[in-house]
Hints:
The protein is an alpha/beta fold. It is built from 14 helices and 14 strands. The strands form 4 sheets. Strands 4-6-3-7-8-9 form a 6-stranded mixed beta sheet, sandwiched between helices. A 3-stranded mixed beta sheet has the order 5-11-10, with helices on both faces. A 3-stranded antiparallel beta sheet has the order 13-12-14. The longest helix has 31 residues. It starts with 8 loop residues before the first strand and ends with a strand.
Amino acid sequence: MFSNGFDVVYLLYLxxxxxxxxxAYFTKVEDMSFNCGIVGLPNVGKSTLFNALTATQAAQAANxxxxxxxxxxxxxxxxxxxxxxxxKIGGSAKTVPAQLEFVDIAGLVKGASTGEGLGNKFLANIRxxxxxxxxxxxxxxxxxxxxxxxxxxxxDAETIEMELILADMSSIENQINSLGKKAxxxxxxxxxxxxxxxxxxxxxxxxxxxxxxxVGDDPDEKRAFKMLQLLSSKPVLxxxxxxxxxxxxxxxxxxxVAEMAESQGAQSVIISAAVESEIAQMDSxxxxxxxxxxxxxxxxxxxxxxxxxxKLLGLHTYFTVGPKExxxxxxxxxxxxxxxxxxxxSDFEKGYIKAETIGFDDYVTLGGESGAKEAGKMRQEGKxxxxxxxxxxxxxxxx
Length: 399
């Protein structure tokens, strides 16, 4: 038993140096959370969507601005049918899916960048998120007021985008002043940071978000960009909230949003928060499936948001399988073996030796680990191996 609460199964290999390889099935893991902030103008359906996502009523949904004042947080499981398949084959007692955190953030109004409404709180909460889920109202309803008096999702998107840009312009100006003083000395890092800040300032002053800046492959350039901590640098997913009648096909308003998203190289999804709220209250998967079919929907819109949010963050999953559990682990796309091992525990990354890896398709087709071994489909991967989505991995490392 590790001191931090891991349950482990030890496999001891005695060689010339008599080192220990450990293969583990876990009850406690390193904290590696990623989150998406749900943002939008007041009364666009953010809290209703959040409630449906988390299948709770933690966020009060009401017809007045600033209903949500403190950000509500919910952990949501990533829908992945592969996990159940490998758990059944591996004889696992339970499954643990990958998770994504969603934060319901207070509604924004024009002037938020200068503190209007709950602007300061809104912007501070966004700064703490990894990506933005931007909910846009794409439905007409006389009983639900719009803060600007009419429904126009493109205008709404531009309102929030501009507030983020204005806040970033103020931030970048302050950073340039501070970095300029350091750069006049012998601080090379400050000089590189100043150069990056000045490049981004030009983009912001042109009314474009920081995420439109094309960061190169140079690690130092990536680091300099990230250190600016700009709100408009975060990736965005546009969520078109439509009426129940338009849940299956969308409407003219959601079509405009899709066109806007495509022009930005972003994604958009169509959901009806009202429909998703109804589904979330159904206990039976059969009832949910029947309801979706009656609405002409192939899957819940929330699944599309969760999956899209995962991709938005540049993440995918690999699996571990054992008698206690089959678990999906979250790792960034492009991560190599040691980094993926570190998601489980930092000791795994530090002492990484190799990873015994089976592709998902091979694992399922060949009936699990034994079949994959016999067919020569279990690979021994070193430190330079780039983990693929769906890999089933057994890590070996020095204690």
